[in-house]
Amino acid sequence: MVEFDNCEPGFGPEPHVHDDHTDSFFVLEGEVEFTIGDETVRAGPGTFVAAPPGVRHTFKIPGPGRARFLNIHAPGVGFYASLRD
Predict the structure, then answer these.
(1) Which of 35, 56, 67, 69 has the fewest Cβ atoms within 10 angstroms?
(2) By the 8 A CB rule, do 70 and 30 touch?
(3) What is the pLDDT of residues 18-59, one digit of tens each?
(4) Which region holds residue 36: left if phi is over 0, alpha if psi is between -120 and 50, else beta?
């Protein structure tokens, strides 16, 4: 699990797919816009969103304020370690 803290508007990755794990998110503060497959949802604090394996997804901070959220990859397949390499 990684906490994305104090993310500025516009922050977010390109759309992508994980074949071997679920990519899930829990919004702590602010708003995050998630696109999972063909659906886009704007989520505030307390919202949980998950992208199953094989589903194209992304997120961004729409603004105007910053956001803070947790990002959980399960099962743990070494995804976070691969980001540090």
Answers:
(1) 56
(2) no
(3) 998 999 999 999 999 999 999 999 999 999 999 999 999 999
(4) beta
Q: Give the type of residue at 28.
A: L
pTM above 0.90, yes or no: no
* Beta-carbon count within 10 A of 32 CB: 27
Q: Which domains does the chain have, with CATH numbers?
A: 2-84 (2.60.120.10)
- Amino acid 39 reads E
Q: Is 83 left (phi over 0), alpha (psi -120 to 50) or beta?
A: alpha
Instruction: Tell me which amino acid residue 83 is.
Output: L
HEC letters along 17-55: CCCCCEEEEEEEECCEEEEECCEEEEECCCCEEEECCCC
